[in-house]
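Illustration 12: Histidyl-tRNA synthetase.
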Amino acid sequence: MKYIRLSKEQLDEMHQEFINFLAAQSITADEWDDIKKNKPEVAEQELDVFSDLVWEGVLGKVEYLEHFSQQHMFLFKVGDLKISMISIEVENKGIDITTAQGYKWLQENFMKDEVNLYSSSKLISDDRNNDIFVLIRQGANITQGDLYKWFEKFVEVD
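Figure caption equivalent — predicted structure in token form:
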């Protein structure tokens, strides 16, 4: 397995897609029930293969990611050759930008001395999807990139 298995909730949401996946392998509903009952290791392998296929599809479409902590915001843009990052750091430890109040404070004060804006980039490896997956495992969320697009006006991005 290259990524991680989808959760039960995710698999439940993708029930029809999983049925189509089994059908593409000529596995009927009765055969699937038999596999689950009599060959649980094969059932586990099928779930792993399906999960990897879903992850590959999702990761292949990712363009932007965001990761927030109390005093940091990391905004990523995934291009063809590199991942660019804008980092926003709040020096005031009394501000928590993961709260509505702290986020509002950041919006009103992002150009002040107690807020630092940085940018950097790194080349994408031979496995673009894995590079993105690592960021997701570290806490990043896939987004439409609105924050990245807004902040890139204020910081020079490689």
